[in-house]
Amino acid sequence: MNNVRNFCIIAHIDHGKSTLADRLLQTTNTVAKRDMKDQLLDQMDLERERGITIKLQPVRMNYSLDGQDYVLNLIDTPGHVDFTYEVSRSLACCEGAILVVDSTQGIEAQTLANVHLAQEHNLKIIPVVNKIDLPNSDRVKTAEEIMNIFGFDEEEILYASGKTGEGVDEILKAVVERVPRPQGNPDAPFRGLIFDSVYDTHRGVISFIRVFDGEIRKNQTIRMIGTNTEAQALDVGFFRPKFEGQEKIMTGEVGYIVTGLRDVSKARVGDTVTLKEYKEDIQQLPGYKQVKPMVFATIFPTSAEDYPKLREAMDKLKLSDAALQFEPENIPSIGFGFRTGFLGLLHMDIVQERLSREYDLDLVLTAPSVAYRVHLMSGVDKVIHTPAEWPDPSTIQNVSEPWMSVEILTPQEYIGPIMEIVSQRRGISVDINYVRQDRVLMKFEMPLANIIIDFYDKLKSVSSGYASLNYDFLDERVGDLQKVDIIVSGEKVEALATIVHRSVAEVEGRELVASLKELIPKQQFEIPLQATIGGKVVARETIKAFRKDVTGGLYGGDVTRKMKVLNKQKKGKKRMKKIGKVEIPQEAFLAVLKK
Q1: Handedness of CA 152, 155, 156, 161 (dihedral sign)
Q2: Tens-digit pLDDT profile for residues 440-493
Q3: Residue 151 Ramachandran class (φ > 0 left, ψ -120 to 50 alpha, else beta)
Q4: pTM of the prediction?
Q5: For the stretch 242-273, what's the b/e string if a residue is b when 16 or more beta carbons lie within 10 angstroms of its beta carbon?
Q6: How many domains does the structure of the chain reveal?
Q7: 96 and 126, same domain (yes or no)
Q8: Which of 100, 271, 283, 374 is most buried, taking the most CB atoms under 10 A from its CB?
Q9: Is 219 found in the same domain as 133?
Q10: CATH number for 93
Q11: Which helix (H) or strand (E) segment is 559 a member of?
Q12: What is the signed CA dihedral for 215, 221, 224, 230, rounded to 10 degrees?
């Protein structure tokens, strides 16, 4: 245990974590040269295609220093704000963190957020200025930023290049010397924290664990304390980075247990695993706080027959993505699906992509929305995720919506345009600090509903891609929110309703009926489309009827002959309008929902 070091790499997205991890694996000869490839720890095709880390990935390395052998357990973490939960789970299993900062870009918003997370877990942080081989690298300025913002001393900062391998030996040496050895009692009853899991078709649930006390051997009977489930440890071992079986895993080490469990809900992430013989006296490890989804959308299979397949896929995906939350939902116009909670839009996009690729499903997602808390006159509070759940306006006392604390790091020349797009989205400026002469940390408070649609795209657009964004839940605040209803040919269509702020409600209503006019096909009769707010019509469009030329067969004679036939047609259309039903195609729902 004295020679074990557990650490992770934290950084903003695209600052070189995965490349640096590759060099660490090469330097310690963990992976044979013939098996080496770029972004080795990014196992998913999706990660490699997009160049981002989505899943945390552990690996065990052997390293010698001054004639002493050490075991280094690295957990590679994602950098994007939507995968913060993956980062926090990694930090709970480590005693140290390598903070990687790109010397061409400096400290960015997610760098700050990840350092705060590491400090909350009392981790020893090793600052590394990366990409020093690039011609536009500014190592001095980046080091100054790190010292000014985080308070490190100059001698603590290391310089490296993940691409060329320069400085990697110094990093490994610093990990051994600075990161504390893991705490724990090797003689106490076995306790391990499940920090991640995967599902294997042949071997069932494989739980990734960090052992805090005692040891676990192959073929012992284990018990998950939280779910009180017993299972056989069919195999135990380490990550190199592929699974490598061992006889046992000891205190302070990171490894895996093959449980053989088929029910994925029995081995939850954050649960404590112990041995069967220790019944009552084992205290559960702190685990993780329950993550709170920020964005909600409903996932449907395009074919109703795929619903059972989707349910199974969601269960298995939740095992490897602990932040995912879902429950069944039925929207009459579309069918059965799952209302799903995500941590952000990228998380939503990745989940959809993984379900499509890994489980061969053709899916449809509704537009993202947030959770509102409605305070009723009766004194009851009701949380709603979709407009269909919106109560009668006369029973509502007020409505609260989630507000976020937003941090934007940007070059100073973009302050004006950023202030403008934030104010358009009901944002409130809190603070502006100069990190250095030409870089500014701007702090705002904004409603989440105004961040999730296209705020990040707009921010990148007005700042030429230089601004970086991080946001965190702040509180719930009462807002002047309204439900915009859509009425098609006199019938309210619940699936097309939206919840918006009063200031933009009429504009949204007009846009909705205008797009529906293009999407709903013509009928034999006229179709009125209306947007209403609390019974008041705020927008109207009319889809004209098909017009058959009923006078084409007439020739000669008085004009009254034509008028007689046209009036007859008019009466027929009027009668048809009363009994005719408008079939709204699925494409119309989806186009409006995805708006």
Answers
A1: positive
A2: 888 999 998 888 777 877 887 888 777 777 777 888 888 888 888 888 877 777
A3: left
A4: 0.70
A5: ebeebebbbbbbbbbbbbbbeebebbbbbbbb
A6: 5
A7: yes
A8: 100
A9: no
A10: 3.40.50.300
A11: helix 559-579
A12: 180
